[in-house]
Amino acid sequence: MTSSVPSYRISVAPMMDWTDRHFRFFMRLISKRALLYTEMVTTGAILRGKDNHRYLDFSKEEHPIALQLGGDSPQALAECAKIGENFGYNEINLNVGCPSDRVQSGSFGACLMKEPELVAEMVSACKAKVNVPVTVKHRIGVNGKESYEDLHHFVSKINAAGVDHIIVHARIAILEGLSPKENRTIPPLRYEDVYRLKHDFPDLPITINGGIKTHSEIKEHLTKVDGVMIGRAAYDHPYLFHEVDQLYYGSKENPSSREDILRELVLYIRSNLAKEGKVHHILRHILGLYFGEKGAREYRKFLTDRMHLSGASESILEDFLKR
Question: InterPro entries of this UniProt entry (predicted)?
């Protein structure tokens, strides 16, 4: 395996309510090398919470893994970054891209693109506290600040602050009038703006994000930028990642079959149900495993018909594998 390829070459996007520790473990069974991101965790949840393990625990198998933080206070973010580093995260990522009303009401997320100097302070404060990379995930702009010149100014500020890597969602965020779901599809993709950033900041590692669904698209983007982040396609079609290690990291190991992945999950579920939770908390994340394959609908139905039943357990997967 080629160890020199940076983990951010291919990554799975942070997605609220989706990229929890169960989904990340599942994805790690498919790819050992792709970089995984947590759901966004707010500084308030960490600093005011009584049990950080609830928000920050992860399995050792999930490495390499990045913690995404949401907040607008440089000091609070720096404190949380240090806590994250102490938990063992490989990267601290700052959310400057989420357009949801809930995030805006806290004055962070995509609306911070209007305040590049503040984001630069956030980066500097975190860099002073931790030894792991500090990165920023942001949009190409927001309504009212949507020109390439605005984007260039924003990146120049955080680059000067020492950001280690940026992930750019190649759409602007419309802060009023669109839902988060609509913000993922309605603003047009402007990949050329991200390519232009790479030309203007050649020494800054840049990952592109937004609307990327196939390996042919991934390979094309990698001729222009340093990394590709996949969001919804990774969740809907997780087995897209089964050759990621071979195609992009130089691995010589054979990819795992879907059935091998399910057998590994049986052990994982058995271990987790002994501690806490319900089986559907895990199985809801794996419904897309057979996406595009003959029998995909029957697989989904087999799981969904059984996973909410009283006493449901890993035997659901064992029964499916016996078919």
Answer: Aldolase_TIM, DUS-like_FMN-bd, DUS_fam, DusA, tRNA_hU_synthase_CS
pLDDT digits (tens, 9 = 90+) for 52-86: 888 999 999 999 999 999 999 999 999 999 999 99
Q: Please state the length of the chain.
A: 323
Check: CB of residue 26 under 8 Å from CB of residue 49. Answer: no
Write the DSSP assignment of 20-78 as a string of letters. Answer: SHHHHHHHHHH-SSSEEEPPPEEHHHHHH-S-HHHHH---GGG-SEEEEEE-S-HHHHH
Buried b (16+ CB within 10 A) or exposed e, 272-286: bbeeeeebbbbbbbb
> Is 111 part of the annotated catalytic residue set?
no
Q: Is 232 annotated as a binding residue?
A: yes
| 258-273 and 21-30 helices, crossing angle to 10° | 150
Report whether 209 belongs to an annotated binding site: yes
pTM for this predicted structure? 0.94
CA-angle at 285, arms to 283 and 289, nearest 5°: 95
38-58 burial by CB neighbour count: b if 16+ within 10 A, else e? bbbbbbebbeeeeebeebbeb
**Residues 22-55 pLDDT 10s:** 999 999 999 999 999 999 999 999 999 778 888 9
Domains of the chain: 7-248 (3.20.20.70), 258-322 (1.20.120.1460)
Strand, coil or helix: 141: strand
